[in-house]
Design brief:
- The protein is of the alpha+beta class.
- The chain has 6 helices and 4 strands, in the order αααβββααβα.
- A 4-stranded mixed beta sheet has the order 1-2-3-4, with helices on both faces.
- A hairpin with a 4-residue loop joins β2 and β3.
- 19% of the residues are buried.
- The N terminus is likely disordered.
- The site of zinc ion has 7 residues, from loops.
Length: 144
């Protein structure tokens, strides 16, 4: 297992797919800022350390890297040719952890939205998702 991680590809994979402050995350934060939606980022106290938390609305948003979170049917989620058994197990473990975290969040009364890194994140898709999650904004720009 160790030498799999030692491969040269590692740093590239890790920083691009697993890293904090990735491009899709930044896109999402920028959009929320433009929309005037107050939010917290990378909230460690909640299951899964959600990328975005709207506390009053009780909504969390995740931005999932396609490979590590096993985006179904996605080209970026294809397993490497070597060590397939290892990678399959790894991704499966990640996915069951995601499921567990979602269940815990739901039990705590949170609603959960998910964005995939392969999909373009723009203002309208964020607005649609927030509306579906029941997020509302009053005339003063307060989110609830
Ligand atoms: Zn994807």
């Amino acid at each position: 297992v160790v030498d799999v991680f030692a491969k040269a590809k590692r740093s590239e994979l890790m920083s691009r797919i697993r890293g904090r402050n990735t491009r899709p995350e930044k896109a999402l934060w920028g959009i929320l800022r433009r929309l005037g939606v107050p939010h917290r980022r990378h909230v460690v106290g909640l299951p899964g350390t959600p990328e975005v938390v709207l506390s009053k609305a009780k909504v969390v948003l995740f931005v999932h890297g396609c490979f590590w979170h096993g985006h179904p049917g996605c080209r970026r989620a294809r397993l490497p040719a070597s060590n397939r058994v290892f990678w399959r197990k790894k991704v499966r473990t990640n996915r069951s952890r995601d499921d567990r975290q979602v269940r815990r969040l739901r039990r705590l009364g949170w609603r959960i939205g998910r964005f995939w890194a392969c999909r373009r994140i723009d203002g309208s898709c964020v607005a649609v998702k927030l509306r579906r999650l029941g997020v509302r904004m009053d005339a003063k720009g307060q989110v609830y």
